[in-house]
Amino acid sequence: MRVLSFTSLFPNAAQPLLGLFVQQRVVHFAKRPGNIVRVIAPVPYFPSWLPVSKWRKIGRIPKQEEIAGLNVYHPRYPLLPKISMPLQAFSMAAASFALIRRLHRETSFECIDAHYVYPDGFAAVLLGQRLGVPVVVSARGTDMNLFPSFRLIHPMIRWTLENAAGTIGVCEALRSAMIDLGAEKSKSTVIGNGIDLERFKPVEQKTARHRLGIPADSHVIVSVGALIPRKGYHFLIPAVAEISLRFPKLRLYIVGEGESRAKLLALAREESIADRVSFVGSKPNEELKYWYSAADVSCLASSREGWANVLLESMACGTPVVATRVWGSPEVIVSPELGVLVEQDKQSIAEGLDRALQKPWSRQTLIGYAESRTWEVVAQEVETFLEMRVAAEHQLTTELRNR
What we know:
The chain is an alpha/beta fold. The chain has helices at about 20-30, 55-60, 85-105, 115-130, 140-145, 155-165, 170-180, 205-210, 235-245, 260-270, 290-295, 310-315, 330, 345-360, 365-370, 375-400, and strands spanning about 1-5, 35-40, 45, 65, 70-75, 75, 110-115, 135-140, 165-170, 190, 220-225, 250-255, 275-280, 295-300, 320-325, 340. The strands form 3 sheets. An 8-stranded mixed sheet has the order 4-5-2-1-7-8-9-10, with helices on both faces. Strands 13-12-11-14-15-16 form a 6-stranded parallel sheet, with helices on both faces.
């Protein structure tokens, strides 16, 4: 297939960890025989000479680069942070049109594969209609479990779903939300994320702990994710305090960085467990296997998730998970042999952690389950769905012409 992937969630020279789950799906799809893929990943325009470090880095992203063997293009579009969100999709589409038209003339794309319903999906459907190319839109989380609540964004999300040739949810909860907002059920499917077994594989626990400087005789909980309110660390830290008397050598390692760091440090002090909680910062993707392998259990306390990659990552390293029962998490933790589902409150999380720390787990069961969901499997499912939707759209177009 000849496919254009359109997404702002894609790694680049300034943000190498951005949207790795999108990159993995696109890369493995491109590796399948006969597939040709180009990637357009728009970035906001910001003069590189202005003295704001975050935006200065984005201003230096090249217009074109090669990432994991893919040609990736970065058209610039104007954006005023926190102000112009309702116009963002129009801006992205306008900035990308000339480039997409040129690439389409060269490659003759069969479809556009858009990631994130708004603004990316809305922009992609606008572009697809201009070029006469069907668009399949993938929902990944916030685009469906938060953005539809925004008054000015809601109608654009509905229009996108109604006019897409197909829709993909990374979990059934997201697919259902899309259908409720206008996506046609017969044109919709669920394709969850996969796991990179080269990056996420078990390391002997003692070895992992020695490498990371973690005491060998500790009870260890690890939590991987940005330090933002949605991730629920303000529930996890008190939950760890709740069970700390039963586990005298209990340690919590939080892997991530973000706006809530100072508040969470203060919370750990308030709960009198500052000596048990370590904020280790953000870590490269390839180092996470040591953190998962060093842990007795990993925990995700989020208020909302699409398909949380950290769940399969932990299981691939042989570590069970405790996760809040939200959106896609119950679709990953499908058995009590894989982890414990809890509510997002201190008591429920504490009880789940207590249970997980005392239960004997089969590492092979956890690893085997994760191994069944590789990115190669995901790429095959995506290819099958895109082929089906392209064929259906072609048949519909032919029938309309013959009337």
